[in-house]
Specification:
about 15% strand; globular; five-stranded parallel beta sheet; alpha/beta; binds NADP nicotinamide-adenine-dinucleotide phosphate; about 45% helix
Length: about 180
């Protein structure tokens, strides 16, 4: 982790679960972290959960990754205040039980596609652009799922469009590579 000391990481979906845990670990390992999510109060609570001396190294930023303008604004803030991003963790993701053929499910299907795919598209592009401008050999990590590699059959739990969205993450990761 030495090369990342005092460097900036952006973590999407930082207000709970894996994203919140990653933020804490990165701060404790010496990075400065911009923690992105929609629920700002949870991001503030995450910051408060850190030891006092480390709190200044976590920056909560309200950002809905389905909104391109939000993502651009968040990256601009990191550029201006933290000197650009060195590590991006694309973690924000949504999954709800449902069937792709359920009636009136367009809003949910769009939310999964906009979060799990378009959120990664916007954030990865912005990270790449700033890394290129600043000549940073950064890392971009996409949090995927086993459902991105095969379609799990779980009795009583239908994953709707989620496996398709995570298969897209697998294909996008190879395409970016
Ligand atoms: N947990 C598992 O067993 C598991 C297994 C396989 C893959 N994964 C993947 O791992 C990642 C994290 O999962 P998790 O279980 O930790 O999920 P989680 O606890 O439900 O947290 C999801 C995070 O994503 C954020 N998020 C959702 N929609 C967003 C949006 N439009 N804009 C910004 N942030 C958004 C949520 O924050 P706000 O609601 O505050 O915006 C929250 O912080 C996901 O990509 C998921 O697909 C998880």
């Amino acid at each position: 982790m030495e090369r990342w000391q005092n460097k900036a990481a952006i973590v999407t979906g930082a207000s709970s679960g894996i994203g919140a845990a990653v933020c804490i670990d990165l701060v404790k390992a010496g990075m400065t972290v911009a923690a992105l999510a929609r629920r700002e109060e949870r991001l503030n609570a995450l910051k408060d959960s850190l030891p006092k001396a480390l709190r200044g190294n976590l920056h909560p930023i309200r950002c809905d990754v389905t909104q391109e303008a939000d993502v651009i604004r968040a990256f601009r803030w990191v550029d201006e205040h933290l000197g650009g991003v060195h590590v991006l963790i694309n973690n924000a993701g949504v999954l709800r039980e449902g069937n792709m053929t359920d009636a009136n499910n367009t809003e949910y299907i769009r939310a999964v596609i906009d979060t799990n795919i378009m959120g990664v598209v916007y954030a990865t592009r912005e990270a790449f652009q700033t890394m290129k401008t600043k000549d940073v050999a950064g890392h971009i990590i996409n949090i995927n799922s086993i459902a991105g590699h095969y379609v799990p059959i779980i009795p009583g739990f239908l994953m709707s469009i989620y496996p398709a969205s995570k298969h897209a993450v697998t294909a996008m990761t190879e395409t970016y590579r």
